[in-house]
Design a protein that fits this description.
This protein has about 425 residues and is α+β, with helices and mostly antiparallel strands. It folds into three domains: about 5-70 and about 105-180 and about 280-345, FAD/NAD(P)-binding domain (3-Layer(bba) Sandwich), CATH 3.50.50.60; about 185-275, D-Amino Acid Oxidase, Chain A, domain 2; about 355-405. The protein contains 13 helices and 20 strands. It has helices at about 15-25, 50-60, 60-65, 105-120, 170, 235-240, 245-250, 255-260, 305-325, 330-355, 360-365, 375-380, 390-405, and strands at about 5-10, 30-35, 70, 75-80, 85-90, 100-105, 125, 130-135, 140-145, 150-160, 175-180, 185-190, 205-210, 215-220, 225-230, 265-275, 280, 285, 290, 295. Strands 1, 2, 7, 8, 9, 10, 18 and 19 form an eight-stranded mixed beta sheet that branches. The chain has a seven-stranded mixed beta sheet with strand order 5-4-13-14-15-12-16. Helix 1 packs parallel to helix 4 (about 105-120) and helix 9 (about 305-325) runs antiparallel to helix 10 (about 330-355). The radius of gyration is 21 Å and the shape is globular. The protein starts with a strand and ends in a 10-residue tail after the last helix.
Length: about 425
Amino acid sequence: MNTTWDVIIIGGGPAGSTAAMTLRQLGRKVLVLEKDRFPRFHVGESLLPYNRPIFDELGVWPQIQAAGFMVKRGAQFWMGDGSMHTRLHFARGSFTEFPESLQVERAKFDDILLRHAESLGAKVREGALVTGHRVEQDRVVVTFCGEDASEHTAEAAFLMDASGLGNFTANREQLREYYPGHKKIAIFGHYAGVQMPDGDERGDILIVRRKNSWFWMIPLEDDKVSVGLVLDLDEFKTLKQEPQLVFDEAVAGTKTVQERMMNARPLTQGHVLSDFSYTNRRLVSDRVVRVGDAAGFIDPIFSSGVMLAMHSAQKGAEVVHAAIASGRAMTFAMRRYEWLTRRHVGRFWQFIEKFYTKHFAQLFFQPNNKFRMVCAINCILAGRPDMTFGTWWRLRVFFLLVWIQKRFALAKPIEIG
């Protein structure tokens, strides 16, 4: 085999950087093609506790720690009218090994990861827009354009797609499938002057539940907060208004958010992300492995994006390394990676799918830790990739109670507004 690289990675975000770091640790020659110049603005600032072991394994934790990101110890879920709220405190989950996480400004965070990949020996080309790929018997050929519109070709034994929502290779193979009923739009920005929790709750993310939509409020610094509104795409279209006006009217009509935004001033606003929550029919093809958002993307209600991206990239890189060593274009380990990734995402998806229903909210907002069921929920929502039998049966009981709640009132009925 005569190829310049062992692996070409499309995308330099958390998934692409993680894949590059992992492959370099395994001794592989890696080329990362990133269309933007870092640092660049990006949404998805709230991390989960189980990001920490990945940081340690990649050797990037000292740089992240030195960046001074805000510590996140819990997540608060509020009703829009302020009538009820609950808090998941990571340190109080008996099945959760890591007691805290971080809120990060993605421009800085992503740049740290990409530079660490470079320091490990990965070749990074920014301003490189991938325009095509071709899988041959013994290699993958990738074409891309430089910032000066010059055309280039690179060859490798394998291709890892970490192209994010661009979903490059899966779109070319027509593999994308949307989750039914979950076509959403997010309108977001960064604001100063937002009233956020302090004391032990400083750094908490706030999720504010409205009838058919929700807000996130993520503290990034002492006076910088990411605030976003997520609603159905169809509902947004019926409003026939500019995104920022929809956002402003939702703030004004949501007591919990309006009170915290009374003295807010925009630092950047009007960013829009739409048509998310999808999966791909295949995560692996001959000589191609998809990781991060290019493997699929789910509603960000539980802040799972970065953790799922980095975990899938690390595991995907390991199976690519083994496949190259075996000289095969497709392996059992690649198919197992696909199955395990879908299972990990599925644990979050069962919460996301139910979160929008009233009967789920009636139990979730009135938690009872009998049999340590709240601890099991805490563990999953903290991002733990493996599930013990103890957490498994408790979650099964919890979702059974959600099913019963829909038919019989186990918990006090509550209105969502």
